[in-house]
Amino acid sequence: MKLQFKLKIFPNKNKRMILENFCNIWKNLVNSYIDLYWKLPDWELKSKYPPKEFFLGNNKFEWYACLKAWQIVKATIKMKRKTKPFFKKNEFDFYDNLFSFCNFVTKEFDLWLKVYSGIPFRRILIPCKKYRRLNYWLNKRATFSKAIKFKKINGNWYVIVYLNYKPKERKQNTKIVGFDIDYRNGVADSIGKIWFNKEFENLRKRTKWRSYKNGINPLRQLFNRIAKEIINIYQCNFAFEKLNFKGKKGRSKKFRRDYKNVPYNHLIKRIETLTKLEGFQTVRVSSVYTSQTCPICGYISKENRSGDNFKCKKCSFEYHADVVAATNIAIRAGLRYGYQPVVAQAVAEEWRRQGIQPPVECLAVSTPLQSRQGVGLCTLNLSCFKDKTVPRRIPDFLS
Fold first, then answer.
1. pTM of whole model > 0.70?
2. What pLDDT does residue 256 have?
3. What is the per-residue DSSP string for 61-108?
4. Could you tell me the strand order of the sheet in which 123-128 lies?
5. Which of 68, 105, 213, 361 has the fewest CB neighbours in a 10 Å radius?
């Protein structure tokens, strides 16, 4: 697994001029090779590296610019774009034989880069500073990759370093918790916990008409914090619905604005990244009728839900609508991937009361423990059901 970090560098005036020259040379080289490769037929672009006869230089720096142009042209053709690309970013790449990391530290800087200067047998030293998150992964035995990228942002120079990290082996954990993401209540899970409702709604309203840059969106920051808390508390597998953002044209203007303002996919991707590092798995299941299906008897009706309240028209089971949707997501993940869904105690008690057998072996939870030890779970003993248990009806689209 590859991680990337952006570090600010502190070059003096002469070193800054060298970086500026490299940036201009890199852009000119990449664009000149783009002009060359754009004229080639499609069958010539199937190879991973450009043919040697199309490389006109004699040093490593120009070879990497040639390789960058080759990748840009291939990506443009793959996306079926007809206009020739033009490289105008203020950045350039260095690889293992053009730079090295120095081991010494000073009072002000704890990381130094020895970088190719363009003059034979002469390299320049560029200081930079690590920060807490980078040190965290280095302490976890992550190693620096053999590539860096220099980038100019708002007049300041940064270096992007890459770390190679081997994730933990997948743990033999069969528990899975379902999550439902809603633009009103934020995130609800199958255990019955609603992670934020008033806080989420107020923050969403305050940031509705604001634009943010450089990843400082408060909603994204809130989702990052929630993702870490979810991983630390539950320590198991997770299930989400496959989000479909199409078909919203017939909705009201207020709904479309509220729906667009929430970074739904950001939380899922963040949890997917963290679960890989911890050795767990994140799966996605169909979102069809998750908030209209009764988790007890399987009855599907649009009339079951009224706002945040869910009441089944067949068995009269009543609960929070978002928790019901998260429970259905967990059950679908259990049916498809062979996991044990973790459900709220109220759902388990309703199965027992009505004598209905769950569609898959489930685990019941009364109160989530706010610690890293995981949640308190108890397996549903199917022998505790009534003698005449009725299997829950499974809809056709789930079987």
1. no
2. 60
3. HHHHHHHHHHHHHHHHHHTT--SPP----SEEEEEGGGEEEE----SS
4. 99-102, 111-116, 123-128
5. 213
